Amino acid sequence: MKINIEMDCTPEEFRQCFGLPDLRPIQEAVLGAMQQQMLDAVARTSPDAVLRSWMPMFQQAPEQMQQVMTAFFRGLSPSRSPSDTPSSGQK
């Protein structure tokens, strides 16, 4: 014996018919918390925040940071002067 029952109803009506709980408020709360965590993570990974967490000493001495960056882009260490650099013809 085979019995087929066909119901034409929405998911909400089906849940109410069988007495199942409505999980929509819980899902919305969880998704809201996840969204907030993701936004916080994006804010923590901004270039400004990363530099602040990696280099706290440079926040107090921006001139020192500028000297280090200038030396880096010139290919020098902060303790070397431009006259100490080897010429391009020497190896």
Structure, described:
This protein is mainly alpha-helical and 91 residues long. The protein has five helices and no strands. The protein starts with 10 loop residues before the first helix and ends in a 17-residue tail after the last helix. The mean pLDDT is 79.
Q: Topology, pairings included?
A:
Elements: H1 11-18, H2 24-44, H3 47-54, H4 56-60, H5 62-74
Distance between the termini: 93 Å
Unreliable spans are: none
Total domains, how many?
A: 1
Please state the structural category.
mainly alpha
- Share of residues in helices: 55-70%
Note the overall shape.
rod-shaped
Query: How large is the share of residues in beta strands?
Result: under 5%
Short description:
Helices cover 60% and strands 0% of the residues.
List keywords for this structure.
mainly alpha, 5 helices, 91 residues
